[in-house]
């Protein structure tokens, strides 16, 4: 349990740091965040391949279908997440992405046997949705596409975490990561081709830094969910909202308005409440 908590806290710090380097790059150049995510998957594939080679592991999985779904869903979620960081604030990106536990709450019963859900959990869910509304502050004549990307990344991430939890029951961490990075490299590479711009000088450093920190975060979160359930993990992961607020202010001088602060607080409290009160006999 404690290992899971430590790994997830480190993972969320890494994910926040990765978007910081990505936004520094996209703010100062015409390079798309899609190139950053490709670097993350490609570098991850190299690191994981070396570990597997030295450990003489077999690449034959026990449940290939789950690994494919995990890889595809994670790739989509990561690309949406980094596109969000390109077009909206770091604070909004992480607050909206962190709503994925709500969608786990919605979709997990499709995959796991659970008892009837209490009405109070729906009240917490509504509270979280109000928080989302406050953060996005939608003006339907002009909605920030970065905020939409952030919210969509949360929806896809929910399915990704569910498939990770299922995959962990059949295959080892390194096998899961190998297929995730392989699928991500191919799919992300295909999406990147039309928008590719060759980086220069300092841009390479930012891409590599973002990619490597993101890979480290992916390793931490995969190991973390080995020791902790998806529901409990979603509770620990709220730490990323705090990381994002602090780093967003320090690095980009982002303004934290009363509306955003209130929305973020509602989201965080709702995640904690849903995670704490959703007592079921079967852990995710």
pLDDT averaged residue by residue: 86
The count of domains is 1
* Shape call: globular
Total beta strands? 0
Proportion of β residues? Answer: under 5%
Estimated radius of gyration? 18 Å
Report low-confidence residues grouped into runs of 5 or more: 279-284
Q: Would you list the SSEs in sequence order as H and E?
A: HHHHHHHHHHHH
Largest sheet properties:
none
Structural class: mainly alpha
Helix content: over 70%
**With helices defined by DSSP (H or I, 4 residues minimum), what is the helix count?**
12
Q: Kindly, what is the distance between the CA atoms of the first and last residues, rounded to a whole number of angstroms?
A: 14 Å
Feature tags:
mainly alpha; 12 helices; globular; disordered C terminus
Helix/strand layout:
Elements: H1 2-28, H2 33-55, H3 64-87, H4 90-97, H5 100-107, H6 119-136, H7 145-167, H8 173-192, H9 202-227, H10 230-236, H11 239-252, H12 258-277
Short description:
77% of the residues lie in helices and 0% in strands. The protein has helices at residues 2-28, 33-55, 64-87, 90-97, 100-107, 119-136, 145-167, 173-192, 202-227, 230-236, 239-252, 258-277.
């Amino acid at each position: 349990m404690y290992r899971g908590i430590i790994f997830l806290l480190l993972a969320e710090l890494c994910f926040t740091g990765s978007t910081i380097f990505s936004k520094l790059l996209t703010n100062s150049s015409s390079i798309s965040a899609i190139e950053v995510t490709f670097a993350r998957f490609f570098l991850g594939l190299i690191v994981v391949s070396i570990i597997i080679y030295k450990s003489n592991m077999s690449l034959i999985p026990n449940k290939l279908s789950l690994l494919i779904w995990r890889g595809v869903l994670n790739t989509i979620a990561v690309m949406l997440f980094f596109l969000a960081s390109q077009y909206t604030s770091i604070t909004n990106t992480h607050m909206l992405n962190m709503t994925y536990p709500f969608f786990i709450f919605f979709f997990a019963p499709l995959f796991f046997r659970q008892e009837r859900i209490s009405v109070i959990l729906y009240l917490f869910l509504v509270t979280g949705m109000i928080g989302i509304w406050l953060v996005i502050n939608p003006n339907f004549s002009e909605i920030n596409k970065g905020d939409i990307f952030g919210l969509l990344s949360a929806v896809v991430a929910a399915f990704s975490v569910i498939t990770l939890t299922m995959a962990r029951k059949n295959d080892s961490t390194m096998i899961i990561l190998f297929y995730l990075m392989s699928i991500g490299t191919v799919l992300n590479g295909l999406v990147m081709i039309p928008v590719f711009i060759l980086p220069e000088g300092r841009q390479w450093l930012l891409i590599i830094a973002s990619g490597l920190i993101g890979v480290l975060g992916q390793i931490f979160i995969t190991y973390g969910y080995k020791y902790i359930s998806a529901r409990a993990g979603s509770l620990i992961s709220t730490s990323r909202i705090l990381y994002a607020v602090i780093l967003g202010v320090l690095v980009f001088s982002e303004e934290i308005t009363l509306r955003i602060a209130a929305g973020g607080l509602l989201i965080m409290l709702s995640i904690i409440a849903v995670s704490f009160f959703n007592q079921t006999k079967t852990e995710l």
